[in-house]
Amino acid sequence: MAAGLVYDSAMSQIESLFVTRLYRAPLSEFGKGVDPSELEDACLSIAEDDEAGQNWCEENAFAGYTSYASLTDLPWRFPIFKDVVKALDKHVAAFAKDLQFDLDGKKLKLDSLWINILPTGGIHTAHIHPHSVISGTTYVAMPEGASAIKFEDPRHAMMMAAPARKAKARPEMRSFIYVAPDAGDVLLWESWLRHEVPMNMAEDDRISVSFNYGWG
C-alpha cells in the first residue's frame, strides 16, 4: 500500500499525491518599498540604451525587448534594482521554506535577473529555466488587457491516451492555468514548471523583471 494512503473498505478516499506550488505576493511585502514608476522608468531607460540587447532581440525575432542575453549587472546600473533583489531574496526564502527544501545549511542565491518589455502583439513562447531551482517574475507595468502568464501541467507530456479535461474542471485538475498578476506582484515557481506569455493584446507595453535562483 502506498505510504500516506489509508484504505477503508467502507469508504472510498481520493487524495492528492504531489503538489505544484505557486507563490504570489506584493513585492513590497518584504524590505524597502519599491516605487513602481521609478522601476518602470529604469527599465525603459535601460532598454533604450542597451544596443546589444536590441540587436539580440532583432536577430532572434523577439518582439519587444529583453536584457536576458546582454546585461548581467542591473543592480549596479540602477540602485532601485538592489532594492528589488533584497526583497526577492526574502520572498524566495519564504517560498523555499514552504517547499520544505533541505538546503543543507546553504541559501538559494540569485544567479540572473533581466528585464522584459512586450509591446502589443509580443509573445514569449513556452519554456522552462534549466540549471535553476526557483524562477519568477515581478511585474512592473500590467496595462488593461495585458497577457496573463500561462502555466502547463508538468505531467502533460506523459498523459498520452488520456482524454481532455472538462472546460470547467477544478483548477488543480486543469492542463493549463492562467494567472493575471497585478503591477507590483511577484510570482515564484519551481524552475522546471513550463510557462509562457501569450500574445499581449494591450495597447501599452507589458513590463516585467524576471529572475532565477540557484543552490550551492
Q: Which runs of at least 5 residues are low in confidence (pLDDT < 50)?
A: none
The percentage of residues in β strands lies in 25-35%
Strands side by side in the biggest sheet: 1-8-5-10-3-2
- Rg (CA only): 19 Å
What quaternary form is this? single chain
Text of the CATH class: Mainly Beta
Query: How would you name the CATH homologous superfamily?
Result: q2cbj1_9rhob like domain
Residue-averaged pLDDT, rounded?
A: 93
Description of the molecule:
The structure is a single chain. The chain is an alpha+beta fold and 216 residues long. It has one domain (22-157, 164-215): Jelly Rolls (Sandwich). The chain is 22% helix and 26% strand. It contains 4 helices and 10 strands, in the order E-H-H-E-H-H-E-E-E-E-E-E-E-E. It has helices spanning 36-49, 51-59, 74-77, 79-98, and strands spanning 22-26, 65-66, 108-118, 124-127, 134-141, 149-152, 176-179, 185-190, 195-197, 206-215. The chain has a 6-stranded antiparallel sheet. A 4-stranded antiparallel sheet has the order 4-9-6-7, with no helix packed on it. The longest helix is centred in the middle third of the chain and has 20 residues, at 79-98. It starts with 21 loop residues before the first strand and ends with a strand.
